[in-house]
């Protein structure tokens, strides 16, 4: 079970509710996440060093691995973020 203080805990909502997206702000950068079936789609449009936008899809069971990867790309100074859910 994922602890309630973890972002992965809240992202499970994306696979259970229709037309719901998450906007996560970490280290001054914004990432959008959308649930589809049992997957999470990541849309991240800012630059990553010499690389451009990041778009990915991963099963909800592996969302913790995705979050570790995203944190490595963003190099956050603190292990904290802001989360907002948006209905579309």
What would a concise description of this structure say?
The protein is an alpha+beta fold and 88 residues long. The protein is 19% helix and 38% strand.
What does this structure look like?
By secondary structure, the chain is α+β, with helices and mostly antiparallel strands. Helix content is 19%, strand content 38%. The chain has 2 helices and 5 strands, in the order H-E-E-E-E-H-E. The protein has helices at residues 7-11, 63-74; strands spanning 20-26, 29-36, 39-44, 54-59, 82-87. It has a 5-stranded antiparallel β-sheet with strand order 4-3-2-1-5, covered by helices on one side. Strand 2 (29-36) and strand 3 (39-44) form a beta hairpin. The radius of gyration is 12 Å and the shape is globular.
* Largest pleated sheet: 5 strands, antiparallel
Q: Separation of termini?
A: 29 Å
Helix content: 10-25%
Whole-number mean pLDDT? 86
Task: List how many beta strands DSSP finds.
Answer: 5
Structural class: alpha+beta
How much of the polypeptide forms β-strand, as a percent range? 35-45%
Strand order of the largest sheet: 4-3-2-1-5
């Amino acid at each position: 079970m994922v602890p309630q203080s973890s972002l992965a805990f809240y992202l499970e909502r994306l696979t259970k509710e229709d037309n719901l997206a998450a906007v996560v702000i970490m280290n001054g950068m914004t990432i959008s996440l959308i649930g589809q079936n049992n997957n999470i789609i990541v849309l991240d449009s800012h630059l990553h060093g010499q690389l451009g936008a990041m778009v990915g899809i991963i099963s909800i069971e592996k969302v913790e691995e995705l979050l570790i990867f995203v944190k490595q790309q963003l190099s956050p100074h603190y292990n904290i973020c802001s989360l907002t859910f948006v209905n579309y």
